[in-house]
Amino acid sequence: MTPLSLCLALSLFFIPFFANPSRAGDTALDLADSLLKIGNNNEAITEYKRFICFNPEDHRISDAYYKIGLAYRRQKKWDDALSALRKSLAMATDDSLRDERRISIGIIFLVSQRYSAAEFDLLRVSSFSKNPYLQQKALFFLGICHLYTFHWAQAQKAFHQCFSPSEKISQIDSLLTEARHLKYKSPFLAKWLSTILPGMGQIYVGDWRNGLNALAINGLTSYLLLDALVERRFQDALLSHLSLFERYYRGNRQRAEKMARDHNEHLNRLWADRIIENLAANNKRK
């Protein structure tokens, strides 16, 4: 299961599938709910929209838009889901419903990797909601948001506030503590090592193959340039060998810097995914 799928799965642990089930029987809504429950998302969306069209003043329209948002979310149609959920939020009749909608909007931003927007909505609920349960849910997903922006200390703080001391999250806490002390490679140092000796930046990052390859290529281009100068073939030196040397030398420095950044990004994502998997396993055990 991918990290994105895990995140969506976790959202189902914390957010009730039907936000407002207590209502008088209605054939159109019953049909839409049944279609949504069995995964016929397009048909469910059509029925909810039909209900909204024929009942423009009904107090249940907010709930219908909410479920349309959930159906679009299942299909990974993030912008359509956001549009529906925002309409649901605008029509919500009380603070708890509005906070529930904001959490759902935050989750859409989270799984579509718009982390700043997700953090804004989730932080708002976790800080100002008067409903402890909604605060807990917002803190949980705020913690996940911090995971994927690699703010380990903030993620740890959010999870500490979310989970009670009796809940078994010691492994997750240990992973977050380790993540706060990950050993990163310095892009600046990698670049300047390859400036001093081509290939050294790549070797510093741990890629010996590309490091030795860069050393060999830059050594060859340096030799060709010096050989042309010694033999007074200045036209060859300036028009061909100098250009070749400059291209490989500069490219070697840039690649070393990029490799260090990519190494750090990969390391961060490995740890974030590992913690997400532990959170999913923790919820399954409940």
First-last Cα distance:
20 Å
Strand content: under 5%
The CATH level-2 architecture of the largest domain is identified as Alpha Horseshoe
Shape: elongated
**Helix content bin:** over 70%
User: Uncertain runs with pLDDT below 50, 5 residues or more?
Assistant: 12-25
Quaternary = single chain
- Give the CATH topology of the largest domain: Serine Threonine Protein Phosphatase 5, Tetratricopeptide repeat
Radius of gyration: 27 Å
Q: Can you tell me the CATH class of the largest domain? A: Mainly Alpha
Biggest sheet layout: none
CATH superfamily of the largest domain: Tetratricopeptide repeat domain
Give the SSE order as H and E letters: HHHHHHHHHHHHHH
Structural class assignment? mainly alpha
User: What's the β-strand tally?
Assistant: 0
Q: Total domains, how many?
A: 2
Taking all residues together, what is the mean pLDDT? 81
Helix count, per DSSP?
A: 14
